[in-house]
Write a structure and sequence with these properties.
- The chain is α/β, with parallel strands linked by helices.
- The chain folds into three domains: 126 residues; 237 residues, no CATH class; 192 residues, Orthogonal Bundle (Hypothetical protein af1432).
- 50% of the residues lie in helices and 12% in strands.
């Protein structure tokens, strides 16, 4: 028992280490965040976002859409600037708190004012369409959009009219060199007349991630040493008057934009906001631009709301893929960001998210390794994957209810790889244990055979030698018989080897035969012959008693040994002993040993008659075909008879010379 416990303890320690090492490696990956896992981590975020119940939008943002119906009624896009001016003025009159234009005006309007009104040419002194729009923008409440570039091209001209933020940047003393935003190299500006008239502007940049999915939008970008807001941020500021005043850097992955009222907007390390999408496209309320211009929209629809003007008409719209929709319009991205800001409803990574995820990797991996090494793979796996399911559920709940994203990716990698490695290690340990058990069992069997043979040799030296020779002869004959289709399944290579190793036991029952019968030099009386013929039963009883002594039942090896010992004197015609079995009733091992026993006894032992030659023994066996022996076994014997003779020549004693000290040996009956 102590030996068994000592064996199990190293196995448990090995399993524990096999489960712990993958967890440690997963923790290292969690800390280092290799780029090749970034896309997988983003996919996990998408899955959790889709699993979470989306928050409904507020009633503070509306999309004014230059849709197909508007283009049909008002003309192709882009519209004349005076028409855009009328739309902006109408929105302001209807009570919109701010109007964000998701449109560039980088080139002069190709329409003249008179043409837009249906006249041949503008009247002298009339404003151009650009001037009309500039005058409307100058009245306030309008945020113009523009684009920042990052291609290393020319710098933005000084007449852009961009409106920077006066932000104070607060950084840890040990991280003053980090840059918490992207730096633009240039800008795509509006016309100077529009830029000078605008009171607020915001960039429209919103680039998808490497996999083409838009998950985050920059709220601030830096250009030429100044920090600029996005269109959504500028529109919210214009609508509410609340201004951002501080950009606070927590670490390389967490930044917050702090407003005057103390509201902190959580951003990533480059001042990107994880957008909390409200659903698929058109989740925010839409109104058609033509309905606004023609007075079919009531003031209740727009009063107090931030209106974003853009186009969703086919061929003019800008669409992006989001985690919830593959065709999400750019103007609704700006509207969703504004809705997040107005509702103070954000998705954020915890400031110490990486550390928390790493701790989860180690905790789950350690618990799984302990459980699997102590309770076994089944219950340990059930508990481990139950914990993993709880972790995923918790991550989805946190994202849905608290807006906090903690990725279960790395704990999953650690647990799955740990269970896989432990399963492989367990299988290897069990295989090695089975191999050791098999080796120990084989050694025990060899010891049993050797012990029983030694017992027979004590009683009769020649009987012991005869038994040992039968091993080689049995291997030859059984191997040849295995080629016969009828015996192919019974005599596999493994069973042939086992049969040959047990063949020497066939005469162990002679230990129960009295010495005066076993060593009698002359003919046996009928009673003595009857006693001699009890040796198969004696041999079987020896094995049965051994089985009962150690509590073994239905052992395949011992069953084969009993068949060999008990049936090797049965005859094909049913006249053998001890049961008088006939034909196929005789087990195959008994049929094989019957021929091996007769051949070796006739060639090497002094029976009641002289030792006979190989040819005579072959004739004797052939003459017994169908009476004493199975015809198929006889046919197999004939194929290997030359090999029998070679083995016999190696180990036989000269004819007429006794191998037993003090007289002739007794025959195998």
């Amino acid at each position: 028992m102590k030996s068994l416990l000592r064996r199990r303890a190293p196995g448990r320690r090995l399993l524990f280490l096999c489960g712990l090492v993958p967890a440690v490696l997963a923790a290292v990956l969690s800390l280092s965040r290799p780029p090749f896992l970034a896309a997988l981590d983003d996919s996990v975020y998408d899955a959790l976002l889709r699993a979470a119940s989306p928050r409904p939008p507020t009633d503070r943002v509306v999309i004014v859409d230059a849709d197909e119906r508007s283009l049909t009624a008002l003309g192709q896009w882009p519209w004349p600037r005076d028409l855009v001016s009328r739309l902006v003025a109408r929105l302001r009159d209807l009570g919109a708190s701010a109007v964000g234009l998701d449109i560039f005006f980088a080139e002069p309007d190709r329409h003249q004012l008179g043409e837009a009104a249906g006249e041949a040419a503008p009247r002298q002194g009339a404003l151009t369409p650009d001037g009309v729009l500039a005058a409307t923008v100058a009245e306030g409440g309008v945020v113009l959009g523009y684009g920042l570039t990052f291609d290393g091209g020319p710098r933005a001209p000084t007449h852009c009219g961009l409106h920077p933020l006066g932000l104070a940047i607060v950084q840890p003393q040990d991280d003053l060199d980090s840059v918490p935003f992207f730096r633009a190299t240039g800008a795509v500006c509006n016309l100077p007349i529009l830029g000078r008239s605008a009171r607020a502007t915001g960039f429209l940049n919103a680039a998808p991630d490497a996999d083409g999915i838009l998950r985050r939008v920059p709220l601030v970008l830096e250009h030429d040493g100044k920090i600029y807001p996005s269109l959504a941020l500028a529109a919210v500021t214009a609508a509410t008057g609340a201004r951002p005043v501080t950009l606070r850097v927590a670490n390389a992955t967490a930044v917050s934009l702090v407003f005057e009222d103390g509201t902190a907007v959580p951003l990533d390390g480059k001042s990107n906001l994880l957008v909390r999408f409200r659903g698929k496209k058109h989740t925010l309320p839409y109104v058609s631009a033509v309905d606004v211009l023609e007075g079919r929209v009531s003031a209740d629809v727009l009063r107090g709301r931030v209106a974003f003007v853009g186009t969703t008409a086919l061929g003019t719209r800008e669409v992006v893929a989001t985690p919830l929709d593959t065709l999400f319009t750019g103007v609704e991205v700006q509207g969703t960001v504004a809705d997040n800001l107005l509702d103070r409803d954000f998705v954020r990574r915890h400031e110490f998210g990486t550390l928390l995820e790493t701790q989860a990797v180690l905790a789950l991996g350690l618990a799984a390794a302990l459980l699997l090494s102590r309770t076994g793979l089944l219950w340990g796996s059930v508990a481990g994957f139950g914990g993993l399911a709880a972790l995923w559920w918790g991550a989805a709940w946190l994202l849905s209810e608290r807006g906090v994203f903690l990725s279960p990716l790395f704990p999953t990698i650690g647990l799955v790889s740990g269970v896989g490695v432990m399963t492989l290690a367990k299988a290897t340990i069990e295989r090695r244990r089975a191999e050791r058990a098999g080796e120990e069992k084989a050694a025990t069997q060899r010891l049993m055979v050797a012990s029983l043979l030694s017992l027979t040799e004590i009683r009769d030296v020649e009987t012991g030698r005869h038994s040992r020779r039968t091993e080689r002869l049995t291997r030859l004959l059984a191997g040849a018989l295995a080629e016969h289709p009828e015996f192919h399944d019974d005599l596999t290579p493994e069973r042939v080897e086992l049969l040959s190793s047990l063949a020497p036991l066939h005469d162990i029952g002679k230990v129960g035969v009295p010495d005066h019968i076993l060593g009698k030099p002359g003919a046996l009386t009928p009673d003595e012959l009857a006693e001699m013929r009890r040796h198969p039963a004696y041999g079987r009883d020896v094995i049965l008693n051994a089985e009962r002594g150690v509590g073994v039942r239905d052992d395949a090896v011992l069953e084969l040994a009993k068949e060999i010992v008990y049936t090797h004197h049965e005859r094909w015609d049913g006249t053998g002993y001890p049961e008088g079995l006939k034909g196929a009733e005789i087990p195959v091992p008994g049929r094989v040993i019957a021929i091996v026993d007769v051949y070796d006894a006739a060639r090497t032992r002094t029976l009641y008659r002289r030792t006979i030659s190989h040819e005579e023994v072959v004739d004797l066996i052939v003459n017994g075909r169908g009476t004493a022996f199975d015809p198929a076994v006889v046919d197999a014997f004939l194929r290997v008879a030359p090999a029998f003779r070679a083995i016999d020549d190696e180990g036989s004693v000269p004819a007429g010379v006794s191998a037993r000290a003090g007289g002739s040996s007794r025959p195998a009956c």
